[in-house]
Amino acid sequence: xxxxxxxxxxxxxxADEFGPRIPRDPDAERILVASAMARPDIVDxxxxxxxxxxxxxxxxxxxxxxxxxxxxxxxxxxxxxxxPVARQLETWHADGRMAARPLLEQDLxxxxxxxxxxxxxWYAKKVADKAIAARIVALGHDATGRGNSAAxxxxxxVAALQDALDGVAKPDAASQAKHVRELIGRxxxxxxxxxxxxxxxxxxxxxxxxxxxxxxxxxQMVVIGARPAMGKSTIASGFARAAAVTNGIxxxxxxxxxxxxxxxxxxxxxxxxxxxxxxxxxxxDNAGVARAAEAGQKIAAAPLYIxxxxxxxxxxxxxxxxxxxxxxxxxxxxxxxxxxxxxxxAENRQNEVSKLSRGIKLLAxxxxxxxxxxxxxxxxxxxxxxxxxxxxxxxxxxxxxQDADIVILLHREDAYERESPRAGEADxxxxxxxxxxxxxxxxxxxxxxxxxxxxxxx
Length: 458
Known about the structure:
single chain; nine-stranded mixed β-sheet
């Protein structure tokens, strides 16, 4: 190595009353720039790996990297060295494009001796890691400022910090756009490989699983809509039981309407075939108690998590999902129900629900899970002769219908006419199925057992 680099290039950011010390690694940045001058095709190689030169914290080094990017087409098969880079920087400085003091020829000559082209990827990773650490420090400083502010708003500020935290780590090369040649092989494999429980989450209904090609798919937002007293919570509990108890798939059930005890009672009665009203009265017979004891052990062993918080915001849901995905391998989330969630602030209720709906859809996509949202319908069905609902009856926002991958409407004729010839039956109206067929699945409503089950003829 030759003489030392000017100390102003290596100075770390000072820690003072106006801000925190920002992590950086000027040695790694210097080696990276020197390596690019020695072998300019490194610029393209590291770009393919996801390296972003904006992560180079020293402005003069960052501009030197940009200069190599500018010149690399002329020097792709050989070294650029320092003289062309110095001239490019002088040109940019002269025309006002580069305001900072440029590295001079003698500076670049010294830097060039640090080149290690064979280790460029390793040093790029060090620079990228320091950039992430710097963003974390800056976010912490921002969080401190927001928390100490008299204008602190939990909904706005927590959501903003959560969004900023999600953006701290930039997407790596694996998450960037892929050429279709990388994808077509998987599509061909799917032609001859039926989905399994690793790919889909069974719904608990034979005909519904058939029409959904095996069950709920990762990344889907599913909306279950119904008028009050149709059994939304009961069928949601059934979906959770089918996933977690029957198939061992980690599931999170958020209930904003019922208590955790009510949900647990329903699960036990459905699994043990014990009448719900007998359980509530404490008069279950010996045979029922034996079935309940056996079912209770099965339920207790299931990866099912129940949260009966009375208030739920999108940032809070996101934090809980992130925790359970990391700790438990979460695959299914059920929220009962959408209109009871605390929506982000907006000009009106329709826009609030729109933001909430879009946020839930993005949550499902980001974490690769299925999110089932129960939703209230407006009074539209009651004004129709047959009382059957449609997806346009979803209350408060058409964006729910737009964002959903699947919309299932729960309808029971006997809820309107007790003497209906279809008493004890319920229709699951699959009114929207992105990329698949729609239709109506008829199931048996055994509400005394807190469950819906397949019809015997299915």
